[in-house]
Design a protein that fits this description.
By secondary structure, the protein is of the alpha/beta class. It folds into 2 domains: 66-282, Vaccinia Virus protein VP39 (Rossmann fold); 302-408, NAD(P)-binding Rossmann-like Domain (Rossmann fold, 3-Layer(aba) Sandwich), CATH 3.40.50.720. It is 34% helix and 22% strand. The protein is built from 14 helices and 17 strands. The chain has helices spanning 63-66, 79-95, 115-118, 131-138, 151-161, 179-189, 203-209, 225-233, 267-278, 284-310, 322-331, 363-369, 382-388, 390-394; strands at residues 15-24, 41-48, 55-57, 104-107, 124-127, 143-145, 164-170, 190-201, 221-222, 237-245, 251-258, 315-318, 341-343, 360-362, 373-376, 398-401, 407-408. The strands form 3 sheets. It has a 7-stranded mixed β-sheet with strand order 6-5-4-7-8-11-10, sandwiched between helices. Strands 14-13-12-15-16-17 form a 6-stranded mixed β-sheet. A hairpin with a 6-residue loop joins strand 2 and strand 3. Helix 5 (151-161) runs parallel beside helix 6 (179-189). The protein is globular, with a radius of gyration of 21 Å. The structure holds ligand DWN and S-adenosyl-L-homocysteine. Ligand DWN is lined by residues 73, 77-78, 171, 218, 248, 319-323, 343-345, 348, 363, 378, 380-381, 384-385, 388.
Amino acid sequence: MTNMPVCRISGQPLHAFLDLGMMPVANAFLTKAQLAQPEFKFPLRVGFCETSLMVQLIEMVDPAQLFHGNYAYFSSISRVMEQHFAQLADAVAAELLYDKRLPVVEIGSNDGILLAKLAAHAPAVGIEPSGNVAAAARARGLDVISEFFEPGLAARLRAERGAAQLVVGANVLCHIPDLNALARSLDVLLDANGIFIFEDPYLLEIITQLAYDQIYDEHYFYFSVLSLSRLFAAHGLRIFRVEALPVHGGSMRVYGCRAGAQRATEPCVQTQLALERQHGLHLLQTYVDFAERVRQSRAALFTMLYDLKQSGRRIAGYAASSKGTVVLNYCGIGPQLLDYICDNTPGKQGLYAPGTHIPVLPIEHFAADRPDFAFVLAWNHMREIMAKEQAFTQAGGRFITHIPSAAIV
Ligand code: DWN
Ligand code: SAH
């Protein structure tokens, strides 16, 4: 008997290629009292299935443990993301919505950052299991059901509100552990001409930029167009358009419909599939090579921060992101190197970072403190952060990034 892990989609063997060690839950920020208690950790390991072509976590934390009444991430913390979702809603309304009465369903609507924009164009309902962020959206007057999206809920939505002309989800598909059930839910809910749109961090960007910190408990899957088109095809669904996006360090938006819908598959889909094959996203060896590069990058980052600290410089972390939890824990970067992490989310301030126990302080503290270096743990928001922190750089402060390799910028 071997203990070979299996793919959550195909049931076929999963080849483990990367081990990021024992890891806390990325968004499980701790109170001072919790610091003395044992912290939950799990083995953060990633595998590739040669049948589904899906990259995925091997050990998974139960979604109920991650998405609950106290979810740490509020989408509206970023102006750039506000603009990004406003553009999506406008484009969808102009081109793809076709019936003012048919519902639009957003999965993972969080604090309403996109749902608010969609609601201006059609009856829009958000599905958001994390109670606190759902409450923030409701406080904006939005219609939100605080449950996990699954086939039973899809059937209820269809019976009570009608078939959906659009099902949309940003940064949520990769958070759903049973993607076959997700595809069945789409089949239940979508109108005959309905479309679905999902955008998530893009595997090709993760590989090329060495963005291994996109790998954490909440992200069960890392998508290519190759893997998603196989998944949807097995459920009578078809991707008809793909769009590369700059947000969150490089994302991919896929547009889909029923396989037999009157909508042509656009040439960009074949182009992207060919590009992914050129980069070897269908080959285990690509991921084995990626893992080797990740291991090498760890020493480079640690050494750089260590040397700065040894030379008497003070370093703060900037943004207590989920990704930050991974890079800090994987590289052994704790309070010995970073004095604190500043963050603009009120709910994270005054708490301690998972695993490393570095204190999380308000952004105002950073402005007053003026450390020598700010290690940006939300490198995906680098431009937005650098634009708002010009006083820091003008006073001689410098930013550090680890993507694609450790550097002072
Ligand atoms: O997929 C997910 C993405 C969309 O959001 C979730 N699984 C969780 C979350 O990931 P993350 O925590 O890595 O998200 P961000 O958007 O990279 O990080 C945001 C963090 O950075 C927040 O804690 C707020 C902070 N921040 C800040 O302090 N100042 C962000 C910006 C833009 C700023 O100016
Ligand atoms: N769409 C937002 C939020 C992304 S964070 C954005 O792009 O910024 C992921 C969100 O998905 C969280 O708010 C989480 O609670 C929610 N979520 C996780 N699993 C879900 C599921 N099965 N159904 C619906 N929402 C889910």
